[in-house]
Each structure stands twice: as structure tokens, then as C-alpha cells.
Write a sequence for this structure.
């Protein structure tokens, strides 16, 4: 509930930091997935316009990396998908701002922290069971924003987590 409210509102810098609802200003973006000849023997391209969370589309890829230059809408599309996942009851969506992670503040501790916003008395074993089952959709925003001195340990933590929780869906953004 708290994160839904937080990510529903966008600050518009071009209009003196005015706040707008994401749903009122969101223009559907198109994701373009390219596969080289090594993957399929031929060049293949898939395009998908993101208007809302599409369970079939996301679950068919399971792990998505959204890459583009600064200011192109990577965080906005992540927030839009996160909000839509909540609205459609598509698993357990968790939004992680990767710049907050460090050697001491691991991905799993951040997940617990995010879930505590919903329920102060969180059962960590239950959360681990749900992760093992694959009930989560992890939105990991801003890989490029991880502090340089933390990048190696955070990357190792991310890789280990994604490999051990492979039944879940992961959407990661970076420049």
C-alpha cells in the first residue's frame, strides 16, 4: 500500500517539480528484444509495447534486463509494471532500488525491509519458502546507480540470489 502510493506519483522536473500520477502521464514504451545468430541461427527481434503488467509476456522470459541511456524511462516503465502487477494481483511484486544496496545491506535484507512495510511481524522463513516457490516478481531498478565501491559485492549478491531464486521473475534496469 505504501509503495503503491509512493510509486504512483512522479515528480516532473520540466514543470518545476510538479507531481503527477504516473497513470495520467505514462506513454506506453516499447521493449525490443534482440537475439543474435548465436542464439537462434538467425537474427530475431521481438517487440512488446508495455501498457500494463502482462503475466504471460513476463513469465515467458522470467529474467529481463532493460537497458537504455539516461532519461529514457527505464525507472518509469519499472514503476508502471510494478503498480500494474499490484493492481492485477500478479504474484508478489517487490520494487528494489539497487543504489540502496551494499555489502552490509543485502538484497534479501532489502526484500525483508520492503515486506515489513506491509506487515511489521514478517516471518522470514515464510518469505524464503515463497521465494523458493517462485511467487515473487522482483523489480530491480538502477544497476548503474550502485556505488562503485559496492558494485562488486552487490553484483555477487544479486547473481547468487537470482540463481538461487530462479523460479521468480526478475526485471532489472540499467544504463
Amino acid at each position: 500500500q505504501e509503495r503503491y502510493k509512493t510509486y504512483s506519483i512522479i515528480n516532473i522536473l520540466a514543470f518545476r517539480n510538479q507531481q503527477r500520477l504516473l497513470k495520467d502521464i505514462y506513454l506506453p514504451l516499447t521493449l525490443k528484444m534482440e537475439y543474435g545468430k548465436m542464439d537462434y541461427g538467425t537474427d530475431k527481434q521481438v517487440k512488446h509495447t508495455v501498457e500494463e503488467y502482462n503475466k504471460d509476456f513476463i513469465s515467458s522470459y522470467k529474467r529481463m534486463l532493460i537497458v537504455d541511456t539516461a532519461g529514457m524511462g527505464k525507472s518509469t516503465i519499472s514503476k508502471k509494471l510494478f503498480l500494474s502487477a499490484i493492481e492485477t494481483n500478479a504474484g508478489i511484486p517487490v520494487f528494489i532500488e539497487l543504489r540502496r544496496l551494499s555489502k552490509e545491506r543485502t538484497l534479501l535484507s532489502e526484500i525483508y525491509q520492503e515486506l515489513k512495510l506491509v506487515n511489521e511481524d514478517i516471518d522470514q522463513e515464510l518469505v524464503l519458502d515463497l521465494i523458493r516457490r517462485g511467487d515473487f516478481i522482483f523489480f530491480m531498478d538502477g544497476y548503474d546507480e550502485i556505488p562503485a565501491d559496492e558494485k562488486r559485492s552487490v553484483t555477487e549478491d544479486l547473481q547468487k540470489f537470482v540463481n538461487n531464486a530462479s523460479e521468480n521473475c526478475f526485471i532489472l534496469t540499467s544504463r
User: Anything to note?
Assistant: The chain has a mean pLDDT of 87. The radius of gyration is 17 Å.
